């Protein structure tokens, strides 16, 4: 399933292994970013990084209960 407006796969459609792999890959990016306590900044960075990999992510994905 893709987001037809943006051609991105919604985060919620990824299986647990795909989500884990992306979070693990993102750790290398986190290691070189300046530190921040701002949730808005963290969301913006992660969302942009995921979009570059064809995945959409939103605040709703943070609130979604685990499967």
How does this model look, in words?
The protein has 67 residues and is mainly alpha-helical. It has one domain. 49% of the residues lie in helices and 6% in strands. It has helices at 16-30, 39-51, 59-63, and strands at residues 9-10, 55-56. The protein has a two-stranded parallel sheet. The longest helix has 15 residues, at 16-30. The model has no long low-confidence stretch (mean pLDDT 90).
Average pLDDT reading: 90
Oligomer: single chain
Uncertain ranges: none
Number of E-type strands: 2
Give the count of helical stretches: 3
Nearest-angstrom radius of gyration? 12 Å
Strand-residue proportion: 5-15%
Termini gap: 18 Å
How would you characterize the largest beta sheet?
2 strands, parallel
Give the helices and strands as they follow along the chain: EHHEH
Q: What is the helix content?
A: 40-55%
Physical arrangement of strands within the biggest beta sheet: 1-2
Summary tags:
67 residues; mainly alpha; two-stranded parallel sheet; 49% helix
Describe the protein's topology.
Elements: E1 9-10, H1 16-30, H2 39-51, E2 55-56, H3 59-63
Parallel strand pairs: 1-2
What does this entry show, briefly?
The chain has 67 residues and is mostly helical. The protein has three helices and two strands.
């Amino acid at each position: 399933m893709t987001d037809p407006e943006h051609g991105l796969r919604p985060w919620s459609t990824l299986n647990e292994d795909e989500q884990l792999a992306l979070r693990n890959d993102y750790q290398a990016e986190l290691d070189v970013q300046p530190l921040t306590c701002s949730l808005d900044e963290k969301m913006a960075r992660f969302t942009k990084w995921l979009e570059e990999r064809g995945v959409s992510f939103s605040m709703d994905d943070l609130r979604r209960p685990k499967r």
